[in-house]
Design brief:
single chain; alpha/beta; Rossmann fold; N-(1-d-carboxylethyl)-l-norvaline Dehydrogenase, domain 2; eight-stranded mixed beta sheet; 12 helices; about 15% strand; globular; binds 1,4-dihydronicotinamide adenine dinucleotide; binds the ligand Cc1ncc(C=O)c(C(=O)O)c1O
């Protein structure tokens, strides 16, 4: 049974994951190579906890778990039943972490990766017990979005998948087991199909960025939270989908490289909220207000969707 979890990497995703797992009654050790990331994560726990309160997520009867921060990798993974690797989306950075923990952990300790889309089969090449490695892909913000993809690589033991799926369920989250280890798994294949088209439309001047967001959020986005794509096909009618897709699919963006607009911005260190500018601009005050407003709205929508409005 999983009780002790180590999270390696406390950037965008780590702090919310730590808070959510602790709320599920688990004992979390949180580690990062960067002291500044540890301090930032520590300061974010209270905010995440108040969002979990607003969501009405109660701890189990045995009580709420704990989050302890450490700057020592050996200390973080010592005695852990599960390690969640959450470092940047780069195979060699992730492989360094697997090599570093290999001799520090028991052969049956589960090692999960929160990779956004690197096939688990590739990551397994860098660990001595590949049968205990699994994909555990959270969605951002991880303390609010309940769905987590679970992905087996070619060498993952079925029991490893079952253990992680059951753990996710046991703390009130929603596991989705992906049946094939395809790049991007399912959530990001769908998201990146949408983002490729959205970026292309803005880049070609078909629409302004603000209007693109209005169109998608108030059109498809709002609807799709209630009616998933497969159900939507039935609601619209497969005959309609057949007619439209017969001419539209051929006209959709099929670019297989990164769009020039994105390269231009990233080359100028315009990464979005984290750097103050990306598609839009953000002052620190605006960022704080935006994060609060988004959390409030996501909480309200989730409560309604769960029938707890
Ligand atoms: N940002 C997002 O929306 C999502 C990201 N992911 C995935 O989660 C993983 C982490 O992503 P983010 O949190 O966005 O990245 P991030 O870049 O915000 O944070 C990564 C953290 O890892 C730390 N780190 C780097 N090397 C390390 C090492 N050797 N040991 C310990 N810590 C180390 C960095 O100091 C940093 O704090 C990536 O694989 C990403 O693709 C998954 C879901 C959503
Ligand atoms: C743009 C983007 N890329 C990856 C992920 C997750 O892996 C997300 C997300 O969770 O929101 C994302 O927005």
């Amino acid at each position: 049974m999983i009780q002790r979890i180590a999270i390696i990497g406390l950037g965008t995703m780590g702090p919310g994951m730590a808070a959510r797992l602790a709320r599920g009654g688990l004992q979390v050790a949180a580690y990062d190579v960067a002291p500044v990331a540890i301090e930032r994560a520590r300061s974010m726990l209270g905010v995440a906890d108040s969002v979990l309160d607003a969501l009405g997520i109660a701890p189990p009867q045995a009580g709420v778990g704990t989050v302890r921060f450490t700057d020592d990798l050996g200390d973080a993974v010592s005695g852990a039943d599960l390690i969640i690797e959450n470092v940047p989306e780069n195979i060699s950075v992730k492989a360094d972490v697997y090599r570093a923990i290999d001799s520090l952990i028991a052969s049956d300790t589960i090692v999960a990766s929160d990779t956004s889309g690197i096939p688990i089969t590739k990551l397994q090449e860098h660990i001595s017990h590949p049968e205990r490695m699994v994909g555990m892909h959270w969605s951002n913000p991880p303390h609010i979005i309940p769905m987590i993809e679970v992905i087996a690589g070619e060498k993952t033991a079925p029991q490893t998948v079952t253990t992680i799926r059951d753990l996710i369920r046991s703390i009130g989250l929603l596991p989705v087991v992906v049946k094939k280890d395809v790049p991007g798994f399912v959530e990001n294949r769908v998201l990146y199909a949408l983002l490729r088209e959205a970026v292309d439309l803005v880049e070609r001047g078909v629409i302004d960025p603000e209007d693109l967001d209005t169109c998608v959020s108030w059109g498809i986005g709002y609807k799709i939270a209630v009616i998933g794509p497969m159900a939507l096909l039935d609601m619209a009618g497969l005959d309609i989908y057949k007619s439209v897709s017969s001419f539209l699919n051929a006209d959709l963006s099929n670019r297989d490289d990164v769009a020039p607009m994105v390269l231009e911005k990233t080359n100028a260190s315009k990464f979005g909220i984290k750097s103050g500018e990306g598609m839009f601009s953000y002052t620190p005050e605006q960022t704080k207000a935006l994060q609060g407003e988004r959390a409030r709205k996501l909480v309200a929508v989730r409560r309604i969707l769960e029938g707890r409005g």
